[in-house]
Amino acid sequence: MEIREKILTFIEKNSRVDLKQLAIMLGMEEAAVANELAAMEEEHIICGYHTLIDWEKTSIEKVNALIEVRVTPQRGRGFDSVAERVYNYPEVNAVYLISGGYDLLVTLEGKTLREVAQFVSDKLSTLDSVLSTKTNFILKKYKDHGTVIAKPKEDERMLVSL
Amino acid sequence: MRNPLSERITDIPFSGIRKFFDIAAEMKDVISLGVGEPDFDTPWHIRDEGIYSLEKGRTAYTSNAGLKELKIEIAKYLERRFQVSYHYDTEMMITVGGSEAIDIAMRAMLDPGDEVLIPQPSYVSYEPCAVLANGVPVIINLKEENEFRLTAQELTDAITPRTKLLVLPFPNNPTGAIMQRKDLEAIARIIIDHDLYVISDEIYAELTYQQEHVSIASLPGMRERTVLINGFSKAYAMTGWRLGYACAPKVILEQMLKIHQYAIMCAPTTSQYAAVEAVRNGDEDVISMREEYNGRRRYLMHRFEEMGLSCFEPFGAFYAFPCIKEFGMSADEFATRMLQEEKVVVVPGTAFGECGEGFLRISYAYSLEKLEEALNRMERFITKLRQQK
Ligand SMILES: Cc1ncc(COP(=O)(O)O)c(C=O)c1O
Fold first, then answer.
1. Chain A residue at shortest CA distance from B305
2. What's the gap between Cα B82 and its chain centre?
3. DSSP string for residues in B270-317
4. At A109, which helix (H) or strand (E)?
5. What are phi and psi of B28, to 5 degrees?
6. Set of chain B residues whose Cβ sits within 8 Å of the Cβ of A6
7. Average pLDDT over residues B148-162
8. CA-based, 20 to 30 A from A12: which of A86, B22, B216, B329?
9. B7-42+284-384 has which CATH code?
10. Topology of B58-281 in CATH?
11. Region of poorest pLDDT, from A31-35, B17-21, B173-177, B354-358
12. Is residue B169 in contact with ligand 1, taking CB distance under 6 Å?
């Protein structure tokens, strides 16, 4: 594996790993790893360091929805300008261009069902190029970002073996 | 009443880790670095094939030597990874882990009084299996100054007119030592000169961190003198599936197969179907697990260095073998006290042969967080010991 790939593989699963420890594990100088990280941030290969939260376990209410959106692409700019209109809303989590039965997949986070519904009816549906929307509410997250949300599995190995 | 037991079996000691298991089982918050198996689950696509085979009702015996499909895949794999070629039909059999292969290879090759050279520290089963096969184990004590490799001189010194077989246990459990091509070439010359055979236990072949593993069977003149043992336990994190294999010249393999036929019948069918998927599509999994182990290995070595604990750099398997002689106590005592005082389980080197005295086997088949916590405790323990001196 190339050095960048190795770094990315490690931090993709644990972005909080301490720089020194990361350097040790990769068998590299700390400064070299730091440079590589900075360069990848600069090049926007690394786009952010996020935290995966199971909001269910808190007292904070969140409602998540996946919205399938059909749109008319615009002359000269395809889907990009509609996508931009959509992703600029802060309540929008992700916007993907999709092949298949619809065009954009928009993921959304709101405090209540009503808030999400309002966003769709007031903001999303009223955009000129939006033809139709279909809102799917998420009932339960089992796995997100490659991580199983439920309790992590216990180590079931014997304590000592040869 | 007559004694129901055979003297040969009662003379063989129980393994040295039972005690630690018993103490640890009674304690809370124990962290273990004492495990000899991967911490990863078997990759899902492999498990899925096992499940699928059950859904399809593939619940019968396979042929004694194992599924043809699996053997063909293994033959291709050995060729592509280690440049050794075996005929899937006449020179290969699927076994119940590397464990069974070790046992039946000895039984197929030894006559009463034949001497078996066993380098130690090494995996615990070679010596009893040699005894059970009527052989006479002759121990070669490997040395830290040679990074626990087997040298040509040590081998030559141990050979007698009764010597028949050498067990070659590399990459090594418990030391993490590997043998490089030039080391093996020196060994091979002596094997050929003295007309000996080799059981090469290459179960950790996929887990090397400096260069690719070299199989002694790939050296000129060695294929006809070698029983190559490998398996799925370590490379694919499949210990519980109980699946391994042996490759050997037809004359040896057919006799091994005879024992297997009468004692075992065939390796588990579900596991064999899952293993087809492992050898066919598992290369990526092996690479990513190896990368992960390698990172932990470097971290472990770094921590030992910080603690001032002397340890040669291991380049194979998932173990390190630090030296604790400075503390003036036996490995057993050190391990017992560390368990009692800091609740960290490690295995004393002596569990793998007398010459393991003064060393500990530390496994790094653990998540980084676990490793870090266990090493913090170990560091505290060592600091305390040094202050008491
Ligand atoms: C060196 C060595 N050989 C063989 C085995 C047996 O493995 P299995 O029977 O699971 O293939 C082990 C297991 O720990 C080992 O460490």
1. A24
2. 18
3. HHHHHHHHHHHH-HHHHHHHHHHHHHHHHHHHHHHHHHT---PPP-BT
4. strand A104-110
5. -100, 155
6. 291
7. 98
8. A86
9. 3.90.1150.10
10. Aspartate Aminotransferase; domain 2 (3.40.640)
11. B17-21
12. yes
